[in-house]
Design brief:
single chain; mainly alpha; BCAA_transport_permease; Branched-chain amino acid ABC transporter permease; ABC_transp_permease; transmembrane transporter activity; amino-acid transport
Length: 290
Amino acid sequence: MDYFLQLLISGVAVGLVYGFIGMGFAMIFRATGVVNFAQGELMMLVAYIGFTLVGTFKLGFWPLLLASIGVSVLIGLMVEVLLIRPMLGQPVFSTVMVTIGLAVIIRSVVVLIWGADPMPLATGLSTTPIRIGPAGLYPAQIYALGIMACVVGGLWAFFRFSRTGIAMRATANLQTTALLMGINVKRIFALSWALSAGLAAIAGVLVGVIYDLNPGMWLTGLRSFPAVILGGLDSVFGAALGGVLIGVAENLSEGYIGRGMKEIAGFVLILVVLMVRPYGLFGKAEIERV
């Protein structure tokens, strides 16, 4: 029983990182209908920029997190304005290819600037595990739970009560109608990229603090993609829960079945779920009238 609880708790901790990245995927898809395949690479880039900020300004964990979010939001806005906005009116496939090209460029830039050797993201945060029952969690993993609760609560209030949040929901439902109602859709697109980049920054800092930095960090983005499929591509909060479920599934499969299962457990899980609910656990089914 202790072994199961250890796998479960550590799986939830890993799943929180997947959840942040998955929410970023869903944020952009919900507003624009585009899957940003550079989300994991953006997370990696911001984490390495955070490494430079720590070395230059000796930032602690919380100042680094806030600074990384600010930098990431600016990068997200630049990507939307320079690369994505010119693709408006073009086939979705073309825009997706732009994000794939951006992902490849970011991977090369990271290696070119920072090198290929692993590096610690030293923020002064304790690396001594804290015992929670049979499991030991790093302080950063515990902070991730609190940050996730704050982010989910803040986004729920934003979408529910703010005029901008309601405009984003309207744009997600039907862009043409939103335009006719006077909503600035281009501004909504830019905001969705900015929010998605901010979520990537949180994930990047957490991954860097817990696991160190390396050029293979972008794979965390790929492994978190099942989270957004599981929760529903158009459900931001479903992606958060999907990330936790994927993290738990990976840990349990590796713990009870064997090594190598961790890499495929998430994809096996979404195959099973999609056979029952093709639009994910919390996604909305598209109804076409002919």
